[in-house]
Task: structure prediction
Amino acid sequence: MRGARQGKTGRRRRRTEQRGRRPGESIITAKRDYYEVLGVPREADAKAIKDAFRTLALKFHPDRNKEPGAEEHFKEIAEAYAVLSDPKKRADYDAGGFAGVEGMRPEDLFGGIDFDNLFGGLGFDFGGGIFDRFFGGRRRSAGPQRGANLEAVLRVPLARVVGGGEERLRVERAVQCPGCKGSGAKPGTSPRACAACHGSGREVKSRREGGVTFQQVTPCPACSGRGSIIDEPCPECHGQGQVERAETLTVNVPVGVEEGMVLRIPGHGLAAPAPNGQAGDLFVVVHTLPDARFERAGADLWRVQDVSLPDAVLGAELEVPTLDATTRVTVPPGTQPDTVLRLRGKGLPHFGNRQRGDLLLRLRVLVPEHLSADERRHYEQLRDLRH
Result:
């Protein structure tokens, strides 16, 4: 209870600071209670906290949710889980509110959490990559510079969304030259350190003004910033250390993959700029192929279904296609144009579970444009009856 009181006091204080700020000062946004963020009671056990975080993170992950504010909401959810999933951090928070966990760096908050294990098998970027992007990284590598990430688009039919499975994707990318192993030098030779910059790849110019030293750092003009000179370039890559290659990859598409979802394939991005560096990742953006029968809206499907005027007036049974097979649908008597009939469970699977969305039929009543003499006589008789 003490933690709750202190947390509320902190929030009241932040709101007071907002009301009393002077013109030009920034607004201090009040943080929400971590239990409130995850939607769990203060006595929730570890499993309930984990389940709540997983559900919310899947919903608001910025690679899946492009709505404004989704990224900030995701950060808030991740921070709340990082504190409440750790017994010590949770105890500090319960005892002292936000002050109990103040001053923690991202690596302190997220360092002990295996996000890859939490979301394993989804083919989705919940690992180190997402926290490098949004929280400044949990760890820094002292090795060679990593290659840039690459993005590709994969278009899949509705049947793949329903059942999941493998899709083939052809990608062209720069890879490490197999002839020189990325050095750029002819096999059997090696680059030599640039004498002008002593291998640093930088030119530093200094000057003093009024007791202050100014330094200007630019790429070394002698080696173009590489730090080395290649006397005999590799004939395969012409001294670049990289070559363009096309490769066909197998992408594992999860059941219920959402429109615009991003799947990560580690190590299939661009080659590292230096030998022995790690290649970047390939981010595959999944889109659904157009289907003449249906239009996708999340896990639901929409279909425009034509109905004749007599069937709309008198009622009828129609044969309607679904993703699995055809099914019979009853059109009630007196159906109006643009009436929507809902076929529950006939849509697409929801991502992360096997429940399915609905198939919604928008009925388009067809009014005949050309009538035979017999049809016209009957319609005139009908009009006379209605009058």
Summary: Residues 295-386 form a domain with the HSP40/DNAj peptide-binding domain fold (CATH 2.60.260.20). The chain has a mean pLDDT of 82.
